[in-house]
Amino acid sequence: MPLCVTFLGTAGAVPTTERNPSGIFVAREGEQLLFDAGEGTQRQLMRFGTGFSISHLFVTHLHGDHVLGIPGLLQTMDFNDREKPLAIHTPHGTRRKLKGLVNAVGNRPSFPVRISEVGDGDVAYRAEEYEVRAFETDHNTNSVGYALLEDERKGRFDRERAEELGVPVGPKFSQLHEGNSVELEDGTVVHPEQVVGEPRPGRSIVYTGDTRPTVTTIEAADEPDLLIHDATFADDRADRAAKTAHSTARGAAEIAARAGAKRLALMHISSRYAGYTDDHIQQARETFDGEVFVPDDGDELEIPYPDADV
Ligand SMILES: [Zn+2]
């Protein structure tokens, strides 16, 4: 089941000709989620062909470069006669301000928009096979990051072993795989643990939004398959990163290493580094030996299962 991330906007507070303000699009089994919606997000959705069937929008904080795309996006959804509700999740204390943005141009959307506040550890959205959980970040304002955490999957079904035990091919296979014991015609009982392996881990994505490096990001997921972290600055502006409650690439990499992340996407790149992110990459690699990259707008990444190569 594909889990696919599209980087809609990877700029810092000021966009560049190459980078739009923040937006991360995630598609999983026909469901579309959006994390932050900087100005121009709707055009990025069009450019990169993702579609507009977003069911949940997760807002990390109310700085303009993360939310100014909301009024335009909602207006277009309205023009497209959307009926499906949209759930918006936003940090504690920001609901009123966000509601103001939703109704910014005077017309309420004709489809239901539900805004709910989330805080550290809250499950913002529980889906059938995964959840999106908020975690506290450190950005001198009400802010959270989000972790998409898939449930464990059933263990592998050992078909050969089942046949050896005399289980007839058919419904008994799925009963066993579902965790139920079955009785064969000769009265033998076969238990699931005889033919089903250990549960297998799901996939996980952690998105920090804007933040200083913080331990809550490390705790958000165990060995995330993808960590999308603030890396507004390189080492040359480390003091500025600390002061403005952002991270350097190196700071992001330290968090990635401590979290045991498999991949690190460096996001929210300041416009001062337009066209040049080699320092970000190099400084991150000195600390983190997983995969590191600075995504361009429009880059897509399909997240494999942790056990895909087993
Ligand atoms: Zn910010």
SSE order and pairing:
Layout: E1 3-9, E2 23-28, E3 31-35, H1 41-47, E4 54-58, H2 64-67, H3 70-79, E5 86-91, H4 95-102, E6 113-118, E7 123-126, E8 130-136, E9 144-150, H5 159-164, H6 171-177, E10 182-183, E11 189-190, H7 192-195, E12 204-207, H8 215-220, E13 226-230, H9 238-243, H10 249-259, E14 263-267, H11 278-285, E15 291-293, E16 300-302
Parallel strand pairs: 3-4, 4-5, 5-6, 12-13, 13-14, 14-15
Antiparallel strand pairs: 1-2, 1-16, 2-3, 7-8, 8-9, 9-12, 10-11
A few lines on this structure:
This protein is α/β, with parallel strands linked by helices and about 300 residues long. The chain has helices at about 40-45, 65, 70-80, 95-100, 160-165, 170-175, 190-195, 215-220, 240-245, 250-260, 280-285; strands spanning about 5-10, 25-30, 30-35, 55-60, 85-90, 115-120, 125, 130-135, 145-150, 180-185, 190, 205, 225-230, 265, 290-295, 300.
How would you describe the overall organization of this protein?
There is one protein chain. With 310 residues, the chain is α/β, with parallel strands linked by helices. It is 25% helix and 25% strand. The protein is built from 11 helices and 16 strands. The chain has helices spanning 41-47, 64-67, 70-79, 95-102, 159-164, 171-177, 192-195, 215-220, 238-243, 249-259, 278-285, and strands spanning 3-9, 23-28, 31-35, 54-58, 86-91, 113-118, 123-126, 130-136, 144-150, 182-183, 189-190, 204-207, 226-230, 263-267, 291-293, 300-302. The strands form 3 sheets. Strands 6-5-4-3-2-1-16 form a 7-stranded mixed β-sheet. It has a 7-stranded mixed β-sheet with strand order 7-8-9-12-13-14-15. Helix 1 (41-47) links the parallel strand 3 (31-35) and strand 4 (54-58). The radius of gyration is 22 Å and the shape is globular. The chain starts with a strand and ends in an 8-residue tail after the last strand. The mean pLDDT is 95. Zinc ion binds next to loops.
